[in-house]
Amino acid sequence: MDETERLLEVIRGRGAKTVGLQFPVGLRPRAVELAGELEKRAGVTCMIAADPSFGACDVPEMPVDLIVHLAHAPMPHLRYRNVFFYDLPTPLPESWAFLDAALSRLPKRVGILTTTQHRQWVPQITERLQAKGFEPVVSEPDRRVAYAAQVLGCDYFAATNIAADVDGFLYVGTGDFHPLGVAIIVKDKPVVIADPSTGEARTLDEVKDRVLRQRWGAIVRAQDARTFGIILSKKVGQDRSDLAARLKALLEAKGREGRLFYMDLVAPELLDGYGVDAWVSTACPRIAIEDYLRYKQPMLTPQELEIVLGERTWDAYAFDEIRA
Amino acid sequence: MDETERLLEVIRGRGAKTVGLQFPVGLRPRAVELAGELEKRAGVTCMIAADPSFGACDVPEMPVDLIVHLAHAPMPHLRYRNVFFYDLPTPLPESWAFLDAALSRLPKRVGILTTTQHRQWVPQITERLQAKGFEPVVSEPDRRVAYAAQVLGCDYFAATNIAADVDGFLYVGTGDFHPLGVAIIVKDKPVVIADPSTGEARTLDEVKDRVLRQRWGAIVRAQDARTFGIILSKKVGQDRSDLAARLKALLEAKGREGRLFYMDLVAPELLDGYGVDAWVSTACPRIAIEDYLRYKQPMLTPQELEIVLGERTWDAYAFDEIRA
Hints:
Strand content of chain A: 15-25%
Number of strands of chain A: 13
Shape of chain A: flat
Oligomer: homodimer
Largest sheet of chain A: 5 strands, mixed
Distance between the termini of chain A: 33 Å
Structural class of chain A: alpha/beta
Helix content of chain A: 25-40%
Radius of gyration of chain A: 21 Å
């Protein structure tokens, strides 16, 4: 059944009069379109959430009867109230050239990883690899990740869970962040990206080296910092207040100052002018890794702060994950 | 009693263990300092709210025992839960030169206006003007404005309430926005600014003309817009959902489309890419007036939308206020 039809049935079933729409930045025009369609066909009033949503970790309350959250998979460990997850999977590709381009780089025992929008391709990918003589392995989902093979920017269970059973990974998707996380977490195993948007395959060796150099740079720059700002997210699935409290206590035990900063959206202009020497983010791990250059002061992950404070060695560097 | 001592007493009295701090952008370093002082002296854990606060209209909940809100006066009509308003008035000036510089431009019957940070100067200002032969008039506070003579960017009761009794206004403060609002609202009466930061007095005639030309430009640009985005604020003191619903119905009655956008912080990058032709803000009036040039599409006030739709004439142009 078409997803909009399924949604209309839910709206009717619940007698919803007002509907809120939440969605990632790339779907802004689609959200406006859907609002128009729902108002016309279901007689509801729609309210478009203009605060950006970065995932199913980020489903703020709205003054409506039903929230429609587009394109993210619900996190099994979170309780959502009156939320309809509107699934927007990418249709099966017409050409599997992007997958075939990856074959020559894959080990025989290969772990399959992807994001929610491509998750429906996994059976065909597995079949295709098996037909070529590979032994693909797919992880079960878990408490934070809804679907088999699915990775999140903050959760690589689908990789670590099967790391002992494979000699490398195939990541199907666009963008570098997720496979980069995999490559850093499963240090000694190759990660090959098969990118359906370009039709090509690639590895991340150079990106990984550059990012790790940047992380080392951030750690060195924070070495003499006296006051650290510890960022604590308002977003329901990014709440790590216990970790933030532990980092504050650790900083104080080491003779530094830790100040807690509570916020929703994390952005450079919102952290300007506080007179803080360095930041540690307990919110989404992408903030430190991906947006590093946008911040004036070094922006660390919790594990990187431990390195600064001599509680962890660089050899034990770990990519930041939010695990339930 | 020193404001921090008063706060420490409240913290002790309530047995608060966690304290949240909210403050305008200009007070960021002061907030970090106060957090350190409270943690040291009261043994509490402080949490600095890094989402910017623009006024007492904007006091979001925090997971703490007590919220400390700096430098804004509480709005009498709002109910605040566990909020301590930390008063930060500007001390009486050493020189009254800025006031004396205004005298030659003031009418005899003059209304006194200011913001909360200078409200304690009002008795001395009144006295000084009386000694020089003026007849100063000060408005009582009301449901949205806590103090006599106080204006807000969204509430000019202190001016309109006494407009019939005066021939012009003296505004004591820095910045153009508040006196601009006064000048547009009380069309035919001069507004003189006595600015303690520069020590000088000035009028706003040029600024007012430029802003009104800009507003006219925005109205003209929105004339052919088909889809309007109606901005509805999450902030407790900026909620005008009834007005937003009325504007949506008005747009639809006029054959246009109105889409509701629900958001906290309003910023250009958050409104980009929706395919909307024009915006109407029911949030803080400053967004349309002060930040106009930052938005790609015309950004209107509710009254300006009425002009676009032929429901109001330009001669009946009204500055946007949020009245309880």
